[in-house]
Design a protein that fits this description.
single chain; mainly alpha; cell membrane; GT87
Length: 473
């Protein structure tokens, strides 16, 4: 029988790796421990999330101290971030609203609408807190390639990163809060998220922590029997990055198995409404600007981290159209296989398990796997496999790729310095894929043999489903 402390599952009593790691803090919880009266699990999780986000900011400190000067130091020290470079590169320094017509001065922002609006808002905040008046009119007369060299813009670029890091902090904390509340009896399952080394390394490369928090919020709302709110949060997440949309497939399978199609419909309506409300202003104002995200991703060739790039670099190139077609066909086939698995498994799979498999397949066949995409998987991975050892193995593969990626871009590995394709980078891509698949194999085993799934109190238990849904099985 699983041992619990005050009705909450204690990881040090359940997980061997957590139990061994607890030795530095005095060992596992006692069987009769009532816990600390103030340091409740959620407060501990949030406190650790604060520390982790501070470490994520510190991880970018070498580049910040170097004033984001564009040298190879950003790759050697692995502190690169898109955020400061896009401040001048996409017109934020001149207050061009994303997706609107800027007279062809800048390319349209290649991000979804909610991310673009957030990035623009951070620029407005930055310009409001810097000393002196921002002369936007003068900046718009300077050649585009010289805007970033203006002394005022050069300094604002540094401040823009710092302001953005502060404004993103609530999303990191929200994700921790939602994950701690997504599983009844299991708030400590959020610990692998708040302590994730990949969150430290990749959390501030881009704005991806926004959809991470919104997707985690969708799980949290579903677990509390609030399907409309769950859909709204997933819809907002899709407005920030496309991938939360695919997670609806996990809700579909569980709703079919539990005969909860009404709840599924409410989720879909909430998601569609939130996505449309967020996108409609940009769509109606300038459809071409709004479409930039879609056209950019459709026309781009194989890019960082993808198996397609490894093929291309080693003499097996394919056109963007071919890659689009094959990747979507393989992704569709993978989703069909997950659907069959979810419908035919003896016991109803957990939503997080199916969500991880869907996102895993998407990332494995996608034509780009930027280093920050690892944070996409974090919320679903820690809920799908609440065991420290397999999660650490997976993150080790991700960190190996993280280092290989930056060193390849900077030409810092011995195999890359001659200008030829870097075989070590291709090996890192394969090892990262193997790490994802190893975690996926654990998920599939737990679905087929739920007695191995530590998150279940009984075979058909899903801690992310409210009791009324469990009774409908």
């Amino acid at each position: 029988m699983r041992r619990e402390v005050a009705g909450v599952v204690a990881p040090t009593l359940e997980d061997p790796t957590a139990r061994e790691a607890s030795a530095v803090l005095g060992g596992p919880a006692g069987r009769r421990s009532a816990g600390h009266p103030w340091w409740t699990p959620i407060r501990v999780v949030l406190a650790l999330a604060c520390v982790t986000w501070l470490l994520a900011i510190g991880q970018k400190a070498p580049c910040d101290v170097g004033k984001w000067n564009g040298t190879d130091q950003r790759y050697r020290l692995m502190c690169y971030s898109d955020i400061p470079y896009l401040y001048a590169g996409r017109g934020f320094a001149e207050r061009w609203v994303p997706f609107t017509d800027n007279g062809g001065r800048y390319m349209y922002l290649e991000y979804p609408v909610l991310t673009g609006y957030f990035a623009y808002g951070a620029a407005i905040v930055t310009q409001a807190v810097v000393p002196g008046e921002v002369d936007v009119a003068t900046r718009r007369t300077v050649p585009v390639d010289q805007v970033g060299n203006l002394p005022s813009v050069y300094q604002e670029r540094l401040d823009y990163f710092r302001v953005t890091a502060v404004l993103l902090a609530p999303f990191a904390l929200l994700a921790a809060f939602f994950l701690a509340g997504a599983h009844r009896r299991r708030p400590w399952d959020a610990l692998p998220y708040v302590l994730a080394p990949t969150l430290v390394a990749a959390g501030l490369i881009n704005w991806d922590i926004i959809p991470v928090a919104l997707l985690a919020g969708g799980f949290w709302a579903w677990a509390r029997g609030r399907p409309i709110l769950s859909g709204v949060l997933i819809g907002l997440g899709t407005a920030a990055k496309l991938y939360p949309l695919f997670v609806l497939g996990a809700f579909l399978v569980v709703a079919l198995r539990r005969r909860q199609l009404r709840d599924l419909g409410l989720v879909v309506v909430g998601a569609a409404g939130a996505w449309l409300a967020t996108n409609l202003p940009a769509m109606t104002d300038n459809l071409e600007g709004w479409k930039a995200f879609w056209t950019f991703n459709s026309s781009r060739g194989p890019d960082l981290g993808s198996i397609w790039l490894a093929f291309s670099q080693h003499g097996h190139a394919a056109s963007p159209h071919t890659i689009n077609l094959v990747s979507w066909l393989v992704f569709g086939g993978g989703c069909l296989a997950i659907l069959v698995l979810g419908l035919r498994a003896r016991h109803v799979p957990r939503i997080a398990q199916l969500a991880y498999l869907i996102l895993m397949v998407f990332l494995l066949v996608n034509k780009v796997y930027s280093p920050q995409y690892v944070v996409w998987l974090l919320p679903v991975a820690v809920l799908a496999v609440p065991r420290w050892r397999p999660l650490l193995i997976w993150q080790a593969g991700e960190l190996l790729y993280f280092a290989a990626c930056w060193w390849m871009i900077g030409g810092l590995t011995a195999s890359a310095t001659g200008g030829a394709p870097d075989p070590l980078y291709a090996v890192a891509i394969v090892l990262r894929m193997a790490a994802e698949l190893s975690l996926g194999a654990v998920v599939v085993r737990d679905i087929l043999r739920p007695q191995h799934d530590v998150a279940r109190a009984f075979p058909d238990d899903d801690p992310m489903c409210p009791p009324r849904m469990l009774l409908a099985t």
